[in-house]
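writing this on my phone so excuse typos. first protein, seq and then structure
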Amino acid sequence: MGKKLYHGAAWYPELWEENVLKQDIAFMQQAGINVARIGEFAWSNMEPHEGQIDLSFFVKIIGWLHEAGIDTVMCTPTPTPPIWFTHGHPERMYVNEQLQVMGHGSRQHACTNHPYFREKAAIITEHIARAIGPLPGVIGWQLDNEFKAHVAECMCDTCLTQWHEWLQERYGTIEQLNDAWGTQIWSEYYHCFEQVPQPGPAPFLHNSSLKTNYQLFSMEKIAQFADEQANIIRKYSDAPITHNSSVAFSVDNERLFRNLDFASFDTYATFDNVPGYLINNDLWRNFKRGRDYWIMETSPSYAASLESYAKPHPNGYLKAEAVAAYALGAEGFCYWLWRQQRAGCEQPHGSVISAWGKPTVGYNSVLEVEQARLAIEPTIVSTRPVQAEVALTYSDRAKAFLRTEPHQKLNHRGLMTDFYAQLLDSGLHRDVVPEGAPLDGYKLLFTPFLPYVSAEYTEQALQLVERGGVWVIGPLTGGRTVEHTVHTDSALGALDRLAGVETLYTFPMDGSGSVGSAFGVDAPLSLWSAVFAPQDASAVGVVAEGGLTPGLAFITEKQHGKGKIVMLGSMPAGEEGQLLLNRLIVRYAEEADVTIRSDVTKGTIVAPRRGDDHEVWVVVNMDGAGGSVTLPRAGIDPTTQEPVPAGKLEIGRYEHKVIRF
């Protein structure tokens, strides 16, 4: 990939006649589309009969694109195995939690762990890599499409066998598994690994250790499949490899991207869920640090399927989305899809061109994105995103714990996005970092909704604190062991000792009348909570009269090295809760001497970037209400070369400004 910004779309040339394809390429040139993603569902076109593989059509199409100045991201077509693979072979199919065997059609209908699937996927991938790897214009590869988007853990016989092998590797002996999982409860005790079931149909709930571990097993297996595909492609191509993922899918993204070259995601957040869009950018920037990420799919207008549709973007919003992405570290901003599907289950989905070849309601927005891309490209490619001083830890393994133990239907993505929105609104530049990411350079660390906190993570966080940083732990953090069991030494395990507290009670505060008082604000307390008796810590927030635990602490702080460990035992709720959280964030940002921040108004963001000898702020209004920010010093607008004075800068509806200091 070169020094440029990519503006692209998913394209399915196998579905259209040649004259339509020529028309599409001409339209792409007019709209400024400089990359097309192809091939992801085309297995039956490439191998209509088992063993008869012909890729000449795709070789021709990539040639046409290249001649038109359009690059290609080539995909492996493994989410949609053809009818010859599935017909008469239920043993190869995905089996859901209710033990229903999937039939042919839709996508993700095969078990990706089945040895015959792996064999056939490897063969088609090798053919594609060999035929297409050397072609000019192929700038990247995408494996499959949205792993585990429609399916979660497979319950087929193949997976059962591999589950037992995985358990044996993890525990060594069945005695160690029994001890770790506490299987004497409800007579769950096993005498050999072959007796350990999958978490399929049961009269009530499965053992938490079984359910969580099966998710982790499934996440590891799909990542191994990605590794396998990537290794085949690398034999024939130097172009970088990715997968288009999401926090909504049943994958461990940190593990998935470990052996891939760059990270990419798909997003269909609606215009009124700006935090839901931005959190992905701040997270995906950190899966492959130092390497730009891609938005591989977003709608030019609205998402839809046969059964549902989302609100269309207002005019101007798509440009704001794209500029924010490029400014926050995206190299590519791509649509699903170029030409509207004329058949299948996604006919109503928003596209750039209609099935009858005319511009859609989103077309002018795409032209606006292209105009903005051309204007900001020189500035973006000559700078890098600035690492934030504030980090919010994200964990897909924590997502697995919360799927096993969701309390009252808690949703990990929703909890994280709401917490992230508080950081966003505070004007702090922030990174969302995977659980295993290095924490060097951070001054303020937030660790919410992480039921199990590993020794490795704790060690990194303590080093941050010893350097003078602040570590804010909770809510819903630390109450479970690695095996998804309850600690028996203290309520929050090692965290109690490190934070200098005794956790007296953990219980659900919703509906208990509990009100917390901290930083001059009183707010209702919610979610499963912990209350503390400080030992060598100070109470910063206490539970007021009323409720079940008046006078006990729900926020504590303790000096450690040059910094502080802060426990946040409960989630403040409602508008008062948002105010309380905001004051907590601002207070500890000041104590940790966080300097990469601004007074930007809510709904507008500042994305700071750095070049060899200069700094750039990209300011984008995301909520359509306009906003402002105070510039710390005078700068220039690199697109117009006009001077921009220090002081208050007003930003209009969905407008963006680039300021070079």
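second protein below, same order as before
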Amino acid sequence: MKGKILLGLTAILMLTGAAVPVKADDVWKFDAQRFVLKEYTGTETDVVVPDTMDEGVPVKRLGTQLLAGSETLTSVVVPDSVTILDVGALSYDNNLSEITLSSNLINIGWNAISSNDALTELTIPASVCIIDSYAVSGCYALKKIVFEGACPLIGPEAFAMLSDEVVIYVPDDQIEEYKKAFEDNNKDLNIQPSGKSAVLYSAEDYLDTENLTFDAETGSITGYNGMNTRLTIPESIDGVPVKSIGKRALWQDPLLGYVTLSEGLEHVGEDAFSITDTLKYVEFPSTLKTIDKKGFSSYRGFRLDLPDSLEYIGEEAFSYFSLETDLIIPEGVKELGPGAFSMASRLQRVFLPASLEKIGDNCFRNSPITYVYMEGLELPEISDTAFDSCEYLRDIDLNEKCTKQQMLDVQALVAARGLECRVWRNQNTEVEYARFSVEELPDDPSKLYLTGYEKEAAKVRSYDTYTIGEEDKGVVGIADGALKGDQTITYFAVPHNDEFVYVGKEAFADSILEHVDLFDSVTSIGAEAFRNCAQLKEITIPASVTEIGSRAFAGTSLSEFVIPANIPVNGEALEGIELSNIKLSADATDEQVAEWSAALNYPWYDRICRVGEESMLVKMPYEPLPEDNFEFDEESRTITAYVGTAVDVIIPRTIGGVPVENISYNAFENTRDYVHSDMETNQKEGDWVPMRCVILPETLKSIEDSAFTNCHDLETVICYAPLETTNKGLFSECQGLKKVVFVNGVLHMDNYLFNFCKNLETVWCKNQVDRIGIQTFGVTPMERLCVDAKNIDMSAFAGMESLKEIHIRGGVEHMSLGAFAMLPSIETICLEGIDPDVMEDDWANLGNSNLTILVPEDTSDEQLEAIGRKFLSSMIITDGAQVKRGTCSMPEDPMPDIAEMLSAYGI
């Protein structure tokens, strides 16, 4: 499919005269066998790379340092035929300020776009799925990088040595994936939403079945004649399942960079992908069992995600590979063949599974590994030469339950090869073994529970087994109440024996425990297990835990409690722990965050944090006015009167130590100006405090109806209070009001909120609001308005005489078309994805024949017609043709710079 797309594009370009084949005897040197431009000898400052050479041969690769090191090159256009940028292809060009990349680009190679001093912006096309190490590095002038597609694989240091000012713009629906990818690369870069969704490619987009040769008898791919850089091997061809990749089927392919092996494939044959020097990543299926001799020899990828189904890695299967990250051999692999990972030029750390039975001759020979971990309690058969010439190998860790003899055997093996390497067994060095009283499990006498402790050592772990009679029995848990009230143990470590699963109810309740090491065999923590362990300040809950009983940690001093993402949601388990001290592990999904937030009764404006995140609630950072500026009713926690004279009012969080939670209707009576209103009054000029700014703290829960009505001098409102509702008419008739910022959001913008605020310029709210009420924005002067609300009441915008353009975000659940009444200047209403069924056709009577109703491009004909009927029925437009498809989205507005706003008042 991808090949067809490229050919179609080339045909179009040739018809328009933009793609005349270039001969390789001019300024370009071209390797037609590998489709790569090798050299450029021209002197143009603005280079448009040809898309074909030598009588129509497509240019697929820009070769190593093709356009590198130029002092005169200022711009480069990479044609859509190109899918690979080789090492340093566009690097070290001091005046290169503009790069246009191919829309079919797959792989941005090592150092490909590096050290370009004049480059300020770069757009990464949606097709890119691999960005190699140092690919975009050392471009110190780079200020903006825009990603258009799903998060690609990003190699170590791919974006190293960039300016602190660089901003990474990514699709809104991919922001978490990008943040994680950069976090995994230890890059603290400024990642922001681009305002667009990702252009997505799937594995199916890269099927090229017609260019694969296939032996239906054996179910084996035997060759490939296509030119895909990203290639998907199908699950079946002509109904026959694909079971294997045959011998040399894709070896020495000059273009393959990203391969997806579909489910059902079980075997990769000898030399299948060997010496394919462009191959950077392989998606393996969960069905793969064997990789044969030299299957991926010379693999250049920076990641290797082998599947759990794999059982055998053959002779030299990954010899000469250049993996930069840890090599993790999955559980299930039984044998590593001779030289399987020999001559791996960048490999440093290796993790071997418990299932491994054999490590072959020269397996890691002459690789720069420094550390090896062996998970198995039973060590594999290790060839004497397995680690030959691994001169940098310093540590081998065995499973903490391996025996001393096992440790000595491995130590002797590495010593015999002349390696300065120490072999260890993992164990908790903070504690010492101690004997506990035990009892047999009623339902399984071969297992033991710990029932008590009467020794003197304070930092202890139990023995793994106890001899009962003549039989050794393993410890699997702590009995209910076993160490309740204990006044000796301050540090307890679960035995690292993979059998200890249970911490009983009230097991340590009321004890002086300060530290506890729960090994990752533990699955169950009983109710009130650590209740009132007042000195317990930290604990790590292993991911193995699937059950935590109610109030298990109530009364502890835990400053942070991290919930592993896989633990079932149970709010009762964490009763008694301060909400602010509870976090989810960093890998928790958004759905898990939402579920735990609900279970722990987080308020609507906040949610449980992942590790490394901060609370969503922003606290007011400004020093409040002295408390004596306010009359305060402690019982109702209400400010009843402002008695000060300051024109810039910062309301305190507490008065007399009591939180301020409400402002009464009459509280700001002395700041109201009735002289310049339509109300009859005995007030005289100057009888009021000309309050110009008010800042509301996050402690506020409510403000009564019309609390600031007729405060005509009020210009700026900064509200840190996450209000359920503004109540009615809160700022109505504030004729001088210009700027309002709801820092922590508001749920309901109630009726008449800004009615007759005739100078209103800015209203910013953190969240989507549940409701915009009647005349919320009535008779305000704004020309453009962006609304993000679930419900929009009739007359919500009525009387906005200057309003020309209004954007209604998606997510609307009900909208009265009467909201658009009395808008004489309206030119455009943008509906950013609204189901016509949620529109209520109320009487608006605009009859505006010049008004355009814009809807998204993907709006169906039926929806388009239904929207037209609704607006016609409400007499907003005069012709259904006024409803048109088009670009109808407004970028997200960042929160206004509050510090800058308040600097005008000296705050």
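The chain has six helices and 72 strands. thats all i got for now
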